[in-house]
Amino acid sequence: MSFMTDRRVDRLTSVLRRRGIVLPSFEIYGGISGLIDYGPVGACIRRRVMDNWVDHWTSHGDIVEIDSPTITPEPVLVASGHVGEFSDLMVECGVCGSAFKANHLAEGRHENPDSLNVDEINAMLKDGIECPTCSESKWSDARSMDLMFSTRIGSKKGGRVAYMRPETAQGMFMLYPALFRHFKQKLPFGAIQTGKGYRNEISPRQGMIRLREFNMAELEYFIDPDEPPSPDLSVWDEKISLIADPEGAHAGEYSMTISEALSSGIVRHPTVAWFLVRTWDFLVGVGIDPARIRFRQHASTEMAHYADDCWDCEVGGEHGWVECVGIANRTCHDLLSHEQHSGSNQLRAWRQYAKPHIEIRDILSPNGSVMGPAFKGAAGVVMDALKELVEIPDSMPFALTLADGSSVEITDEMVTRRSEEVAVHGEWFTPHVIEPAFGIDRIIWHILDHGYTETEKEGENYSIMRLNQSVAPFDVAILPLFDKDGMGHIARQIWASVNSMPGLRGELDANKSIGRRYARVDEIGIPWAITVDHTTLEDGSVTVRRRDDQEQVRASIEDVLSKLASGGISTLF
RNA sequence: GCGGGCAUGGUCUAGUGGUUAUGACAGCAGGUUCCCAACCUGCUAACCCGGGUUCAACUCCCGGUGUCCGCACCA
What we know:
RNA-binding, 4 domains, 18 helices, nine-stranded mixed sheet, five-stranded mixed sheet, BirA Bifunctional Protein, domain 2, Herpes Virus-1
């Protein structure tokens, strides 16, 4: 049995391997650290967690699902900041072992430390930079962090550099123009994407917690920062654990409702508050223990390069408190950066004023018959520059700066000064983005961790995986008490009926004693078991067994099937 | 990435320079039982990979990989 090792986490891991839930990848070739497989049972659980997640967000109505490539050309990740952030050179102190980013050490000694290459960094380190920790100066050679998997698109020589995406978020930003059109050019709206992300971790540990290839599920919610959506939070009356920014005005731990958290100023942004509580809803809905969920606000010093405000949702389990969801206000950082790097003008939204702003503008209207002959071919450029002119000079002539930086002299005869009344109906702006990013594998780990229950049964160790039906690998097990006298036949008919119901899956097990089969289905978390016995042959009734307390009731096959279909099976008890 | 421990059927493990390589549980077939891992019979199934030492290596040595513990890292 699996109760021989003395740590619960080892026994749980053993169950996961033995029952085909989560296993190390490529094991027959020795395995690769940081890569896992979901086996036949685990893949069902993963699929259902993903489906729950997609349904959770798309049910809002203003959030849609998209799907984009995992291979991402380099310029996208330059604009997002990943290439700069990820290409840092690391060095270690040979005396005390502390590790530093090389460009941080070089600050103050070089105008642009980020531009240094490996050799320059190494030379500079030998030149007497001291370790901030121990003040010695014996450095290891600098080496690149290389946290993204790089590849090439196209032939080796002519190909373009690309990386496996480190997050799915960039796909949503790339699709912003299409989303903006889809939503009739009105904020707020959101897009979700689930899929694989890749980080070439230096030293993955802790099984499913730090992976090199992992399942992500991210939502980008685009809002007008001047009118952030503020849903009514009063309908959530659960108390939520919060750990506020240790450097902020509210430093400390709290247990309060989300509306209290917002009104007290601990949560700073109404839309972020809403995502915190909706994240809480999701996690509880897939079976995470509410008592082991907490939200921790990032201190300004640990915020990601793009984030203006950030909360981690941490879940407690065998590996301590683990960040399972990051909720960040990314502001306009990504869209603005992509606009600058790509030159696209489609990454904005239109803010319609309630009333048009009437502006009286002094303008200089060009006098073509004078300017044409004066500037000849350049006349068009000059007139464009005149149109862009914001500060109208008081006196003539004046020097007008053109788009290319040169300037020309504008004389009184070339223009007519007049006042113009302009109705401005709105303005273009770059939307802000609130991003909840879910680590699905970490969440699945905690679902399994929280569900795994070790009990005793008649003096023997017994384990039950208490999964919510919404994430259980099968909804119901169908067990003929014996596979003879027609019981097996009836069981197979029930099995087929269950499997024909949308969204429902049954598992048939006719092997070995009934007690052993109950144990098997308890171990992988199947919430219900239907047993076909001798009485079934007489009156068409079966027993229904509830996993979590092993209670049993008797009901007709028709009744059980219809209650399974309607989701009301628990009303039998 | 550094230091240390570990690596034997599906799982947990015993053990040895020459063995038919333990045992338990799980699994399979049959019997038995007739609602909670019962019992009987039989069966399937393992020494992480690559070098070296040796007449002979699962065992000793070196390297790799994986895993665990500490340190570091984790945008």
